[in-house]
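ok new one. same drill as before - structure tokens go in, u give me an amino acid for every spot. 210 of them this time. try not to just spam alanines like last time pls lmao
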């Protein structure tokens, strides 16, 4: 894994300086692949795109914000940049806040946010914790899943598999099975088998595919 330069941004609301890591190269060796499509690679870390300014609380897209500079590890000259706040991933509450403030702007933005909410809940299961801590949280979890299903395109095979998985999460095993069994591609027979098994086990939770 080869780290890239640290990229420097200015908060569009208050001029606070933030830094985000980047990667020159990595690899997918020894990755973990999950039924919700999340892939975790030790040698290919992901960095946030949507983040929150620690100083003023403004939530914004780094990819839509112009970089004001960058520095490499070992560079000594710019202490202000080196000491800048590190861009962090949002929490589940902050992602919901981003949705209600219409930070998404378009469908791809909404997809990013809703997928991150979905994955963040599933991260709890990946880490051996419960999916939802209260009935209120379960209602929000469910509303996000329904919102995600609404914006996915069933004509795109990978999005169709996502729709099947989201329905399995909701306990709609028959819908999940109908979708999965309609997929006609021998290359994904292993994936179909895994979904069919988890549906017959009545498992709604995220599971590991490899
Ligand atoms: Zn700010």
């Amino acid at each position: 894994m080869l780290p890239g330069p640290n990229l420097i941004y200015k908060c569009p609301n208050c001029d606070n300086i933030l830094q985000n890591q980047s990667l020159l190269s990595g690899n997918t060796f020894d990755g973990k692949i999950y039924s919700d499509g999340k892939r975790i690679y030790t040698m290919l870390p992901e960095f946030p795109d949507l983040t929150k300014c620690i100083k003023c609380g403004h939530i914004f897209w780094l990819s839509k914000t112009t970089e004001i500079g960058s520095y490499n590890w070992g560079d000594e000259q710019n202490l202000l940049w080196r000491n800048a706040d590190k861009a962090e991933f949002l929490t589940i509450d902050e992602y919901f806040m981003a949705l209600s403030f219409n930070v998404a702007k378009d469908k791809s933005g909404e997809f990013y946010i809703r997928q991150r909410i979905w994955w963040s809940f599933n991260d709890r299961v990946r880490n051996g914790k419960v999916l939802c801590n209260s009935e209120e949280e379960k209602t929000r979890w469910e509303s996000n899943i329904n919102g995600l299903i609404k914006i996915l395109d069933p004509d795109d095979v990978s999005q169709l598999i996502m729709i099947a998985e989201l329905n399995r999460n909701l306990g709609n095993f028959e819908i999940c099975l109908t979708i999965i069994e309609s997929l006609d591609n021998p290359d994904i027979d292993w994936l179909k088998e895994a979904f069919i098994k988890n549906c017959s086990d009545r498992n709604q939770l995220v599971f590991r595919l490899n």
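The CA atoms of residues 143 and 201 lie 25 Å apart. and btw The longest strand covers residues 6-10.
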